[in-house]
Amino acid sequence: MPESNHHIRMSAVLLYLRIAGLVLIYNIAFALLMLLVFASGLGDNGTLSFTILWAVLIVECIVELVLLLPIISHWAATRYYLTSTHLIKYHGLISSDEEVCELAQLKTLEMHQSLFGRIFNYGDLYLVFTSSGYRSDVWVRGIGEPKVYEKIIRGHMHDQSSKRQIII
Questions:
Q1: 81 near 98, Cβ under 8 Å?
Q2: Residue in 120, 137, 119 with CA at minimum distance from that of residue 128
Q3: Sign for the pseudo-dihedral over CA of 93, 97, 102, 108
Q4: Using CA atoms, how far apart are residues 96 and 57, in angstroms rounded to an integer?
Q5: For the chain, first and last CA: distance in Å?
Q6: Which helix (H) or strand (E) holds 126?
Q7: What does the DSSP 8-state code read for residue 57?
Q8: Burial of 80 (0-12, 13-18, 19+ CB in 10 A)
């Protein structure tokens, strides 16, 4: 792990909103399925309805876990670190990919926030790095306090451009 001035995490609020939305939609679908089962007459027999209810509950739990796992693992697997000279992105839980970008090569920085992002203080940063004909677009998605990190990175951009002018 690098010596980091700032550890940029994906927004916990965004994670909670995604989980809550998925659980809400899934539970509404489950309630409609149960309504259909009992309205069709399968729920008239006590033993049969109890067996069906347990089977459906077990399937519901398994499917819900399968749907929630990618959301949680993506959140846990993506980490960003900002040093005075680099932006470093790690992605992965078991195996890990690392992308290192030099702030001296940063040409463009944009911050994007939706309406919900403004309300819950999360958003995306879009960074463009260029170096001798090579261009790299980096999205730092779903982070908390994007305005704070935009300001910090802009400060690093200003510091880097001041250093370049002094060298010349």
A1: no
A2: 137
A3: negative
A4: 35
A5: 33
A6: strand 122-131
A7: H
A8: buried
Residue of 27, 161, 54 lying closest to 106 (CA atoms): 161
Taken in order 30, 32, 35, 37, is the CA torsion positive or negative?
negative
Rounded to the nearest angstrom, the gap between the alpha carbon of residue 152 and the centroid of all alpha carbons in its chain is 20
**Quick one: tokens of 57?**
């509950």
Please return the burial class of 128, using the count of CB atoms within 10 Å of its CB with bins 0-12, 13-18 and 19+. middle
166: exposed, middle or buried (C-beta count within 10 Å: 0-12, 13-18, 19+)?
Answer: exposed
For residue 6, which amino acid is it? H
What gap in Å lies between CA 75 and CA 12, rounded to an integer?
A: 8
Ordered mean pLDDT values, 10 residues apiece, the chain (168 residues):
72 90 88 77 64 80 88 89 89 89 91 94 94 88 93 80 53
pTM, rounded to two decimals: 0.71
